[in-house]
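Supplementary Data S3. Sequence and structure tokens for construct A.
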Amino acid sequence: MSVRDQYQRPLRDLRISVTDRCNFRCPYCMPKEVFGAGYPFLRDAQVMTLTELTRMVRAFVGLGVEKIRLTGGEPLLRPDLPDLIQALKAEVGIPDVALTTNGWLLEKNAPALISAGLDRLNVSVDSLDPATAGRLNGQGFDVERVMRGIDAAAALGFPIKINCVVQRGINDGEIPALCRVFRARGHTLRFIEFMDVGNTNHWTPARVVPAREIVDRIGAIWPLEPVDPAYRGEVAARYRYRDGGGEIGLISSVTEPFCRDCHRARLSADGKLYTCLFASLGWDVLGCLRAGADDPELGRFVSRIWQGRLDRYSDERAELLRAGEARAKVEMSYIGG
């Protein structure tokens, strides 16, 4: 069964937060002034168990989900993560299970992840400079440990993509250095525009480096050419180095939104279903399961949520920004006149 939302977008990808805890305090995600010692993280009883997760994923698969991405928090903090991966691959039969990690625990955990059947890895690297990396992870942690984890995972055969959130005046000067390092390692580097996720990351348009500018900067050093999407709705716009040095990707939800083809849902660690990355309210799928819903009832519950989906937040934000720019031009023309 394939379920579609109000804009006829299917449900294909599911992001699952397996924990709300993280060992980093990145300012754009979990700033330490908010997520400090007194922050009320979820209690164990509130977090989805492995069995509950497996049941819920089966419901999503029945509605068309083909890809699972495991996230956090930091997913490698969850002790039974390899067991979950093995269940998703062997029991549920998910063809594509990926993991997004900050890489701090990757060197130690990579062997267990590949044994469990994990297909792909995304590792966050926002800076190669020790001082900047320490500020951006909020803990002063050394990026060299993350790089060792990347190399260890690559040695085991994992396909790896590197995620870098670019912020003007903070790490955008490192774009060429990041390209140079990961070109040499053979990993696709994906630049992500600084997004207004949540309400604690001090987002401002002035700190957004547009994807087009990033492409131009890189292309001035290593000429690039666009690559066709691997599938409809692919999040990253892809470019390859003309010299054969691999690819980069651009995730540009601020300047070039891709809402029209978005087929992703997110499941929080406490089992809430969010139909948009930017949504602040979720539907309690875990509550439905714990109230006694059987598998068909669970599927119908999720189906109704997706069928009512109207989310197009990034498109709407872009429209507002364009309207603001147009208004400013009109006001300037009056001033000039």
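Construct B, processed identically:
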Amino acid sequence: MNIVSDPKTIGTVLSPEANQAAALASATGVLTIDLDAIVANWRKLEKTAVPAECAAVIKADAYGCGADPVARALARAGCKTLFVATLEEARAARAALPSAVIYVLDGFLQNCGDAYAKIDARPVIGDLNELAEWDVFCRRSGWRGGAAIHIDTGMNRLGLTVSEAQGIVPRINAGDHGITLVMSHLACAEALHHSINARQLASFREIASQFSGVPASLSNSSGIFLGPHFQFDLVRPGAALYGINPTPEADNPMQPVVDLKARILRLRAIEKGETVGYGSTWTARRPTKLAIVSVGYADGYFRAGGSSDGTRGAEVVISGKRCPIAGRISMDLIAVDVTDLEKNAARRGHMVTLIGEGITVDELAHHFGTIGYEVLTSLGPRYARLYKGGTTASEPAPATPA
């Protein structure tokens, strides 16, 4: 198990084990990421998508789980292709994995050709102006690093229109075009029977078939579970790698990845009729024992998860039992009703579980009124981050362009 901590706060003369112990002793919250679970999820997705290649989306710091350790663990497991959002994320990924194929979803940025070439990153081009700029750079520099073409089939966000994509088909058929992937993105893949899935599939299948010899990619995490017709040559899972349910209409087939804990700062007793927190929205209906816990919306524990006299909020686990939040969530603190716990089951300095022990990222997202993606990517920098596993897989194989 490895810990990521601020070197300024811990003496460098200490051993790694002592550094870890010191970090945990002073941390008000601990986020543990199970790299073996991420690898197991990737392998499950890879098996589901066979014979398509299974890439991995590690944008937004691998959805808050740490792009560097996640990328290394996945590469050791055999993952050859990565997707990131920005050029800066591509630089970090390239530093971790010199031989990986890296696609940049935000596309080809103006006057940044040299930066793409320097790290051998492939832009995902979704605009004719981008394509023209990329062409000019390639002609002037002689760079042959490749790029993807993104075609919009219903998301109405990034991507060439289908008619624009048809306009460049002659270029593809002429050869020496430098396009290594054609892709689109599903808008409603998590909804198994949504009508737009079939429309997007038909649209993409037709246009992708005209890009002769170019591998095609349509499916994100949820798209993989729509069936083989959606998988094409390469699939691009993101959220499912990190334990978020890609099939919300059914049980989650993925392993949980993160465990989040925060420390009890103090215990206090209040009388029946007293209120708790900002706005006095929660009133004690009996003599109540509270645990004040060191987490809040500054740490990505959203304010929407609080409770009031008429609404039950999120829960935490203390000594194996679920306990409800009492009142509003503050910037740095929450109050938890621990009245029903046995004596000394909750004590100052103990850690309580915010994610884990049956509380999933998706459950917490429900209380927050959002999705698991936002929960994971919002977990703040004040947690000590620990990593377990990820070191026993085989060494990465040489990258094969998609």
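The chain has 13 helices and 20 strands. Confidence is low (pLDDT under 50) at residues 5-12, 392-402.
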